[in-house]
Structure formats: structure tokens, C-alpha cells
Amino acid sequence: MGFIPRLPDSAPFSSNQRAWLDGYLAGLLGVEAGSDNPSALSAEPSAGEEPPWHDPTLSLDERLALAEGEPVERVLMAAMAQLDCGQCGYLCRTYAEAIARGDEPSLSRCAPGGRATSRKLKELVGFSGPETHAGVRAVATAPAPVRSPGEHEVGDSLGVAACNSPELVAAIIACLGVPRETPVLSPDGAERPLEQALSEVCEIRRPSDRAIEVLASRALDRDESRVLQAMAEGYPGAGPEDADLLDLLQGYPSARPPLAELISALDPLQPRLYSIASSPKQNGGEIHLAVAAVRYEKRARQRLGVASTFLSDRLVPGEPVRAFVRPAPGFRLPPSPETPIIMIGPGTGVAPFRAFLQERRAIGAPGRNWLVFGNPHRDRDFLFEEELLAYCGDGLLTRFDTAFSRDQESKIYVQHRLLERARELWSWLQDGAHLYVCGDAQRMARDVEAGLAYILGKEGGMEPAAVKAHLARLTAEGRYQKDVY
Ligand SMILES: Cc1cc2nc3c(=O)[nH]c(=O)nc-3n(C[C@H](O)[C@H](O)[C@H](O)COP(=O)(O)OP(=O)(O)OC[C@H]3O[C@@H](n4cnc5c(N)ncnc54)[C@H](O)[C@@H]3O)c2cc1C
Ligand SMILES: NC(=O)c1ccc[n+]([C@@H]2O[C@H](COP(=O)([O-])OP(=O)(O)OC[C@H]3O[C@@H](n4cnc5c(N)ncnc54)[C@H](OP(=O)(O)O)[C@@H]3O)[C@@H](O)[C@H]2O)c1
Question: What is the DSSP letter of 399?
Fold first, then answer.
């Protein structure tokens, strides 16, 4: 499979920048322009070195191309979302190894990778065929929580076990036409009343392929059965990829499997992670989060993100929440309080940087702090506005740049601000600054890295290969850290 990376046409760069960056991206992935052999890069990494696909900003196809020809556990790892977020109870590498050994039967634990990852794992496991997987039913078990040390450090995230929307649960129960107290076997093997199982334990926004197969196998109408089977097998266009359980029950009314069969085939509801936005030194036992509520309209119904709307709409003050701290040892302030830091955090990506700033204030760190923040509109999306402007006023923030993308005709993004300050950024890096990026993985982090690469190339007079090596060195030294999702 050949792959030559190119910046998308929409990427906000001039044609000169674009040409340079296309070269850089090709270099980054080890692909010579015109070559179709990305696997040339995929030699066994030396101990401690991250494999080239362990980068959440790469697409699934790009990651798999980089792992082509590797042993099965490494190809399986490339199918994971590469966040090492711990939601599955493992790291990307250890989850892949457990599947390859046959110790882990569930192929749908990678929450950020979603259906694309679970389908690819199914395909790869079917193809490589580890003995233990032949004929094994993918039993969904409750995710093993990542153990929390009890207190957190700045840079860590909070894992939240949320409940599904009660309206969605009620509509599903009404469609099933059974009492809400009906006892059912949940995906974790425990028996619970139906309503509790659907609310607390089952992934109902994205029914598993197995649950869709169960619906297909029990549909009385042959056309409905055929469409559902095609959906379960991932045929493009067979049905809406993003159907929730209610869509399926309403759209395929002849498909009414026995309750126990359907419920136990659903995936377990995974916790979601949120960057902790506060320092324990300033806020004692409190943990602050910045949550973007996921709400959108689809097929004439409002859709709600499970955890983000649980936190923003349904949480009752004073009621306990099931949560754990996910330590992020690779996303930490520099050991020396003197070291300057540059923090690039558009949207909710600003969260850990508020924690960094609070921490640096609390310990009296004299190092310089530069924050670059962006969001659509200044008047409604300026997260932590008052506090950040106060830090700017009292000198905690040495530099503070904002990029409100939709406040003018053409988009302004954080990387535009960096490009405007290219010389200063280079000079901070020369002074030993640590560079941090947090927020959207798929578009932002990749384009920001392209912008950083352009700056290093221009200000440091480096060719793309040297820039790639420079960024790799900064990463290895812990001076370039990303927490992207
Ligand atoms: C390390 C880490 C840190 C994170 N930190 C934060 C943070 O600080 N703040 C924060 O808000 N989030 C953060 N996230 C993201 C967070 O974990 C959740 O993924 C996010 O809140 C959505 O979860 P949900 O349960 O609300 O939505 P879900 O129920 O999981 O639904 C989200 C899904 O809905 C679909 N979707 C969303 N919008 C649309 C649309 N318009 N059209 C069609 N489909 C759509 C997409 O498939 C999307 O994946 C972080 C993630 C990680 C891994
Ligand atoms: N509806 C949803 O699916 C939804 C809702 C909430 C969060 N999320 C996800 O959660 C994460 C964080 O979301 P968020 O609300 O914190 O912020 P976000 O969606 O990442 O947006 C923050 C800012 O980044 C800008 N941006 C968009 N593309 C960019 C690029 N290529 N380079 C640099 N900046 C770019 C956005 O501008 P523009 O938007 O003006 O282009 C906006 O000003 C993302 O992964 C996001 O996809 C998704």
C-alpha cells in the first residue's frame, strides 16, 4: 500500500510553505516523494524508541502502512488510536500484545479508535488467526481502571464513568416494549435491571458489530436482516455508520432479538478522559475540567455525547461520580522551574495549561510562560478569559497569543500566530524552552506540527530531514510533548 502524505488543500499555508511542508511530511513518514514504500521505515526500533506509527495525528491507513511487514502484535498496535489513554485498561502496545497472545478476547476496547479500530482488529486477528481467537466470542468485559495514585499531578487527566442520556435509555426501552426492571445480563457478565444496564454499563450510542449481527440474525424481515448484516460487516453505504441503538430499533422494526442476547452483545460503556485544568497546589481537593459538550442534530433527533453532556447537564452537585486519575508521565512541566515553556492549546486543549500556570505560580517558578490559545469566537469561547488575562497582566504569562478563528472572514489558527512570531519562538527554543501541544489530534496537532516544522526550517536554516531529526530530538529529550485526542 503506497502513501505519500500531502497537506490537505484546506491547510492554511502559502504555496511556498505548502511545498516545503509536503517535503517535511514526506520526510517525517520516511517516504521519498515518488516512492511507494513507506514500510522502508519500519525497521525494529531500538529499545525505548517509539515505533513510527505511535502518533495519534496519523490516520489509521497511515499507521498501518508504517507497520506493514511487522510482526502481528505490532500491526495490531498500529490499529489502535495511539493515545495511550488507558481507557481500555492497557497501553496501545500492551493491548495489542494481549490480543496477539490470546489473553484479551475483546477487540472493541479502544474507545478513541472506535468502530474503525475494532473492525481493523477483527480483520487482522481473523487474518493472522491466533489459535485462541478462532471461534472465540468477543466477550465484552468492564474496562480495567487505570489505578490512580490518589492525587494528581498537573498534566494528568481524569477518567469519568458517565451514564447515558435518560431520554435515550427510555426511548430504547419503549421501543423494546419490555418493563424497565426486566433483569438482563450486562456486557460485564453481571445481572441488572434493564434500565440500569442501558444507563450505566452499555455503549448504546455506537452499538457493537456483534449487537448488529444479533439484530440481523433475529430480524423477521429478510431485507432488514440483509441490510443489518451488511452494516455489521462494515459494507460502506449499507446503513448509517453512526446509528445508535434507537436508530436500529426504529429503522428495523422486525429485528427484536431476545433481550439477553441483544444486551450482552453490546460493548461496555467506556470511561472518557478529561485533562485536569487545575493544580492541586492551588485547589486542594478540587479538580477543574474544561468540557466541550457534544450536541448535534442527526436524522431529526438531537444527539448527545455521553460523558460531555453528563458532566455539563446531568451531574447533580453533591452526588458522587465514578472517576479515576490517568497519570500522564509524558506530559509534564520541565524539571527546572527556570525553563521557559511554550504551550499551544486551542479549544479545550488549554485545560492542562491552566493547570501548568497555576502550578508555576504556586511554586514561584521564575521560568517564562508563553500560551497560544484559539477558539471560534472571542465573545463566547474565550475559556478562562478572566484568569488568563490576569496572568497576562501580572506577568505570569510572558506572552499570550489568541487566535479566534471565526471572528473575521478568513480563519486564523494558533499556527498562524506562531508563524507571525517565528523568530521569537526559535529564540525561546534556543534558550531551552519546552514545547507543549494539547487538543484535537486529527487536524490541529498535525497542522501545528507542520507550522513548527516550517519555523524550524526557516529560522534554523534546516532542510526537512534536519527538521525531522530536530523535532525527534526535542521529543526524545522531553522538550516537545503532545497530549492530543
Ligand atoms: C487524553 C484526553 C484528554 C481529553 N481532554 C478533554 C478535555 O479536556 N475536554 C474535552 O471536552 N474533551 C477532552 N477529551 C475528549 C473526551 O474524552 C471525549 O472524547 C469527548 O468529551 C466526547 O465524549 P462524549 O462521551 O461526550 O461523546 P461520545 O458519546 O463519545 O460521542 C462523541 C462522538 O460523537 C460523534 N460526533 C460528535 N459530533 C458529531 C457531529 N457533529 N456529527 C456527527 N457525529 C458527531 C463522533 O463520532 C464522536 O467521536 C480528551 C480525550 C483524551 C483522550
Ligand atoms: N461536535 C464534535 O464532534 C465535538 C465537540 C466537542 C469536541 N470535539 C472534539 O474534541 C476535541 C477538542 O474540541 P474543542 O471544542 O476543544 O476544540 P476544537 O474543535 O479543536 O476547536 C478549537 C479551535 O481550533 C480551530 N481549528 C480547527 N482546525 C484547526 C487546525 N487544523 N489547526 C489549528 N486550529 C484548528 C477551531 O477553528 P474552527 O472550528 O473555526 O475551524 C477552533 O478555533 C476535538 O477533537 C474535537 O473534534 C468534537
Answer: E
DSSP 469: H
Ligand 2 center–CA 414 separation, angstroms: 12
Ligand 2 contact, 209 CB (< 6 A): no
Question: Cα(341) to centroid of ligand 2, in Å?
Answer: 23
Task: List the grid coordinates of 266.
Answer: 453490546
- Asked if residue 418 lies in contact with residue 455, where contact means CB atoms within 8 angstroms, the answer is yes
Q: Which atom of ligand 1 is nearest to the CA of 308?
A: 26
Question: Atom 10, ligand 1: which residue's CA is nearest?
Answer: 291
Domains of the chain are 15-125 (no CATH), 163-268 (1.20.990.10), 341-484 (3.40.50.80)
12 lines ligand 2 (CB under 6 A): no
Q: Whose CA is nearest to atom 33 of ligand 1?
A: 305
Ligand whose nearest atom lies closest to the CA of 483: 1
Q: What is the pLDDT of residue 453?
A: 97
Low-confidence ranges of the chain (pLDDT < 70): 1-49, 127-150
Nearest to 172 by CA among 197, 191, 190: 197
Q: Whose CA is nearest to atom 29 of ligand 1?
A: 305
Angle at 193 between CA 321 and CA 160, to 5 degrees: 20
DSSP E strands in 162-279: the ranges are 183-185, 191-193, 272-275
List the residue whose alpha carbon is closest to atom 27 of ligand 2. 444
Specify the pLDDT at position 46. Answer: 42
- What does pTM read for this prediction? 0.85
Note the helical H segments in 266-328. 280-283, 306-309
Contact status, residue 75 vs residue 124, Cβ threshold 8 Å: yes
Question: Residue 32 has what pLDDT?
Answer: 36
Note the pLDDT of residue 144. 36
- Tens digits of per-residue pLDDT, 339-381? 999 999 999 999 999 999 999 999 999 999 999 999 999 999 9
Determine how β-strand 157-161 pairs with β-strand 322-326. Answer: antiparallel
* Euclidean distance between the first and the last CA atom of the chain, given in angstroms as a whole number: 26
445 lines ligand 2 (CB under 6 A): no
Sequence length of the chain is 485
Instruction: Tell me the β-bridge partners of 196.
Output: none
